[in-house]
What we know:
The structure holds two protein chains of two kinds. By secondary structure, chain A is an all-alpha fold. Chain A has helices at 6-26, 38-44, 46-69, 71-74, 77-86, 88-102, 110-127, 132-156, 161-180, 190-197, 205-223, 225-235, 237-242, 247-273, 282-295, 306-325, 331-352; strands at residues 199-200, 203-204. Chain B is globular, with a radius of gyration of 26 Å.
Amino acid sequence: MISLKKDSKKERGKAGQNSAVNLGAGVDEEFHGTVPRARSMALSSPKEFFRHYTVVFALLITIIVFGILRPTTFLALSDIKTILTGQSALFALALTLTVALGAGEIDLSIGGGLGFSSVFIAYLSAVKGIPVPISLAISLVAMLAVAAINSYLIVKIQVNGLITTLAMGTILDGLSQAVSNSSTIGNIPNSILHIMQRRFLGVGLPFWYSVVVGIVIWYALHHMQSGRFLYFTGEGREAARLAGIRVNRIRTISLFVSAIGAWFAGFVLLGQTGAAQAGTGDPYLLPAYAATFLGAATIKPGRFNPIGTFVAVLLLAVGTTGLQLFGLTDWVTNVFDGAILIVAIGLATLVGR
Amino acid sequence: MTKLALAVEGVTKTFGGTAALQDVSLKVELGEVHALLGHNGSGKSTLIKVISGYHRPDCGKVEVNGHEVHYPTSALILKNYGVSFMHQDIGLVPSLSILENLRIGRLETGPLKNIRWSRERRTVNRLLSSFGLDLSPDTPVSRLSAAERSVIGVIRAFQDVSRGESSEGEGGGLVILDEPTAALPEEEKRRLFDVIKQVAKHGVGVLLVTHHLEEPLQFADRVSVLRDGKLVASDDIGAHCYDSLAELVVGRSIVKTEKAGKKDFSNSEEIISVKDLSGRIVKCASFSVACGEILGLTGLMGAGHEELPFLLYGAQRPDSGSVSVRGRTFVPDPVRARLNGLAFVSGDRIRAGGVLSASVSENVTLPVLGTLVGKMRWLHSRDEVSIVQSVLNRFRIKVSSPHLPFSALSGGSQQKALIGRWVGSGPQILLLQEPTAGVDIGASQDIIAILREFASRGGTVIFSSEQYEDVASLSDRVLVFRDGKIFSTISGSDVNIENIVARSYGKAEATPALS
């Protein structure tokens, strides 16, 4: 019951007032003719500007440093194209994860979902010989069922989302092994390879697909009512509910978006590698989280946002590629991704204060 | 000199120029149940916070169980002096057993640090039966009734202070109970007070902080009354009756005539009618409200008035009953309520008010986003900016940029923004919980003005509040709650603070429902 806690509420109210006074002292009291937009506010002071574009700067600095150290190899245009193409699956995965995190949901089943989708599509089309469009449809339905189970447990029954999706990811890994019989499935139909390996402006089509996905998400989150509702749900679920927002519907949809993202990323990966194997999705889980959290520290600091995510994926990709040019292989990627995730949540916490 | 459980001498405490306590002296003897009465803002909670060491008094001194309190102090030091508190929420861990809750921190252990469960069980059994309780020590607290939990809380507090007996043989002690009966039904209170009296019999002083006037009359040995930061009485309970206590608590000073202009809506078109609505506290509430009417819901803390806006909006699902708006009946939930023209501003600003991390602008425009949607469902930021601007100007909300996070606003401004955003969005019925609680006086005047203006344009306001002055000045009609039921209706020229206070503290035999 609310009223029983009145005293502590008053105390906190007072604290809030004090901080408001402090904040107010720094900035002028009067409005300008029109209200400054967030962007122009960001530009108004160097500190704010830096705060908004930290990750962008980090990306530029990384490029410059590697460019100087390895001018011939690193700055070669083809390399950049390769990076963009090679990160397509991660782009799709991280961008859709942004939606789930924005709504306050966590989905750890996306890694398993990615792997499962790629194996399942390969199994249906290459092993069973089912026509590609139908194979895609069946695998998509499977992933929608995964999302339905996730959201039923998390939203309806209110089971802890972290544990639920962690378990779901493991189940999907197991199913991938079952479907693929723990071996590599090759002989992928040409049409799949075609869709995923053709290039536009020298960059693989999957990258452009992800760009389209990113634009749709950006539009929905930043320029539509539903996006505002989604962020309110994520940042203050009870307040959102009392404002008449259908929070459970939004949470459910966000979990569907991340599952569809995992399905699409799996499809991309299958087309790009031309083979499927259980467990290929897991290495994508951590970078996707690193990118979304790092993205939340930039562009719109304190909020999971698709542009931030996009920039962050680039930073991750450039960073690992650069390090690999020094002959440091495999293990570097993991160390780098993990370190970035820690830096990202550190930044996000600091920025959120 | 005999030792006292509590001796407060000449304590004064001011907050920013306002005296919350002025030269207060209070004595609680060992073995007595001493009731401390006072209205909201009388200084009651400040006094408790001074005794508990949370506030350092400006002057004066506090002695507990023979030990002078030196500030800053800590809960641990006070505990060693033999003082323990039971707050409203009691502070038991529901998933743990009675034994664990009672004995945590003092469990007997064997040579291998193993807990001696069988011995513990015997101890707790003895303790429980000495208070005449037939409960198994292994029962999880979550299975207990509200009254039983309070009883366990009191026993734990007693156990904390009586520990001194074994160590220094000093005995005595002080147990402070803060509104222990707030959430209890009438018939359960007696059980709790039986235990409290037994605690006092063990030579412990009990300070009972309460709103309810009949409790000290029935159960206390002595009573003290705080009003406006001053101790206005400290007498044996035999010297008082209900009316004399009510007069002391309310005082004559706050009785003032409210400004005229209370309208009578009894013949107006009704917009919302509520039938037999029941929730956790509210039982079978039925009433209806007219267009343009301001209805105040009030009572003592826990009486049910504070739950009603929640139920009407469906923020909490009603157990039974129905709400109809303009003849359309529905079981409320927030989405349906919104569609039927209801809006709700919760009293819990931190958790259920604005979203602190979102911007001021986003919070303000949340209810009207639908009107900003243009082609391709694109939100028009220019229109959004002008709406925010007009709300901020109209309600005098000071903020350097609407793009700052909502947390940058003061409590009062947050509240104004949260109310203002609905006023602009065209709901017909505004439900509010404690709209003026915890905001400064300027903001609370602004809020009252906002609500009046809203009603003058034909909007309906239903609000719950324990700020009786605001209830009196704002409402056209007041429903006073007691024990979950509508105890009394005050309307028209009878709406004044005197009547509201009298009915809230209402004696059982008070004349119900005037209208």
